[in-house]
Amino acid sequence: MTVFRLTEELIFPHPELADEDGLLAVGGDLSPARLLLAYSAGIFPWYDESTPILWWSPDPRLILLPRDIKISHSLRRVLKKGRFRVSFDQAFHRVIRECAAVRVEKGLQTWLIPEMIEAYERLHELGFAHSVETWMEGKLVGGLYGVSLGRAFFGESMFSREKDASKVALVILAMVLQSWNFHFIDCQLPSDHLKRMGAVEVPRAKFLEMLREALKHPTYRGRWEPTVEAIQRIYLTPRSEKPVKTERS
Predict the structure, then answer these.
(1) Which end of the chain is more exposed for a tag (fewer CB within 10 A), N or C?
(2) How far from each other are the two terminal CA atoms of the chain, in whole angstroms?
């Protein structure tokens, strides 16, 4: 097994050189320049306090095409009733910390250690990292965050403190990204939950090809302020063409 050790030079080995588990390199730093280089090459950091920084490019790769998001009948009812209010980039710092806190409360290990949180907060301040928030009665109850380059969105983590809160955030994100002609949401690693919502596995070579195409477009940099309510009406009104799929609960 060959794992590359990074130096101060801003360079990564080709993703196809990763080992069978997807581990490609170790070391380096979490500077904005290195993180953006990594994402643009189909690589992401994933590690914990017991290890140095580890860089991954798994094969296959889990992706979700925005137009293929699957909404169960029960979730569609939740969306129509307006139980949650959804916003973008209004509480990034709280969302990323909640993603970590929920895992810790469940006794699970988290990769969202302080230096990782600080790194993504810097990307948010630079306009590359974004959050989707789900609110109930003025309280933050769910959400997700990720990185956007070109017309690709790299999902990092999500959390939920109320039933369906994170699902609603993902569905609204997919609707917004579809309206903006984004090519895919990178879900990174296999997840039965995300597969039920429409995510599929593709070979790494295919993913890298799709990524190259997505990066040919300019990045939606800065704070995202989509008209969420209008987009919901377009996608949830029966008279529309319904570009999203539905399935029974």
Answers:
(1) N
(2) 43
Domains and CATH numbers, the chain: 4-59 (3.30.70.3550), 62-247 (3.40.630.70)
Helices (H), 156-200: 165-179, 192-196
> Could you tell me which of 170, 172, 209, 162 has the C-alpha nearest to residue 187?
170
Cα 160 vs. chain centroid, distance in angstroms?
Answer: 15
Strand partners, 132: 88, 144
Give, in order, the Cα–Cα distances in Å from 194 to each of 2, 74, 189.
31, 16, 10
pTM attached to this predicted model: 0.92
Q: How far is CA 236 from CA 58, 92, 191, 239, in A?
A: 35, 27, 26, 9
Cβ contacts of 136 within 8 Å, gap of 6 or more = 83, 84, 85, 162, 165
